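Lecture 7 notes: from sequence to structure.

We start with a single chain of 307 residues. Read the sequence below before looking at the structure.
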Amino acid sequence: ISEKPLDRKQIALTYDDAPLGDGPRYSGVERTDALIRQLYEAESGPVAIFVTTKGFELQQGSERIAAYADAGHYIANHSDQHMWGSRTPTADYIADIDRAETKLAMFDNRRPWFRFPFLDEGGQGDTNKSGETRDAYRTALAERGLISGYVTVDTYDWHLDSLWSQAVQDGRAIDMDALSKVYVDMVVDAANHYDQLSQRVLDRRPIQVLLLHENDLAATFTVDMIEALRADGWEITDPDLAFADPIVNQMPATLHSGGGRISALAMDSGLRDWATLSHWGVNQSDITRRAFETGAIEPPIELESDE
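Now the structure, written as tokens:
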């Protein structure tokens, strides 16, 4: 019996907030070159780069996005000013989407995908409990021929990158091999967590969409990450295929979009236990503890003295 395509573990790689500024290891320009090299070496195929266009003011921002496009990667909209959807007047937020679309028009390999900053689709907070804001955003995207660049596998890679940056600023020791393992374990564990949750909630395996950021972790450890995913049975998949998966049309009813679409659909199904919905890679305390206990990042002296 042949295996159905969606019985396989498939995952598309997506990177938010490009072009970010300087990090603990690379300048912004150096990072773009390093990430492109890592993706090429790992034979990733195309990935999606979700661009925050205010970042064009960073060093050579638009040239860096063009470099991703020239390398065969897809360019998509992550807003201009990176605002919270539920805390911004609706008309201003929609105008911000349009502003980013205009700035992105110059690039090759454009895709009609918009990813909400903070995964805030307008339903978070006490003022948006009616769903009116979220529904207005859904209508605005549809009118513009855009789809939500949803996430199914969430990680707080940005927090681990922040811990690394702070340690470098403080002059604390970094064990690069151990740091790679924390990053890689976060991604693989997250992928398997949401794979299991999707089978429970959807009774199938969608093509997963992994949320990462265009940071120094990605520019340093992507080869390690992709090798580990493949060793665990995952196929790295084209984002075009991922965003054609039927889950694209499964719009959650819950107003809580943090954690991604599978978590939201799980909440729709009646799952409310955060321990079931979540995993260590979306918990800042758990990430910090793992980074320090594994020796990846030397903890601050005040923490050592508290032990």
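The CA atoms of residues 280 and 286 lie 6 Å apart. Keep this in mind for problem set 3.
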